[in-house]
Amino acid sequence: MDYDQLESLRRHNSAWKLLHADNAPLILSFFNKVFVDDNVRSIAAVDLIGRLDDELFSLRERLGADRFPKSAKAYLDDWAAPERGWLRKYYPKGSDEPHFDATPAVEKALSWVRAWASVPLWYGVPAQYRVRPVAADGLRC
What we know:
Elements: H1 3-12, H2 14-20, H3 24-37, E1 43-44, H4 45-63, H5 72-79, E2 87-90, E3 99-102, H6 104-117
Antiparallel strand pairs: 1-3, 2-3
């Protein structure tokens, strides 16, 4: 990989844009709950809006009412916009209700985050600089 390839990825890759989004922790944690933990492949808009409303309510209670100012529907519409590419909004055959599913960019971003989360924080730090936890009895673990 060279500079130009990475710069192009940074500008055009939806997964990279997702990781760099201001609300990436909200987006990724919500998508992980819905599409990974609950193993949902496709979900009706009304159901997804309800779930995001609940998530936003919980986060606003903890982080402050002004933390996430938009409605759940507005966030979902933003995340499904072509320039984002994080959700696919579509109408199933024979239905007039929109549905959503996660795009491959979401799967890629979640896999990157899971991979990073599995690496110990001290990875790559020389042993003499690592801090080992201290047990309640004062002994090193």
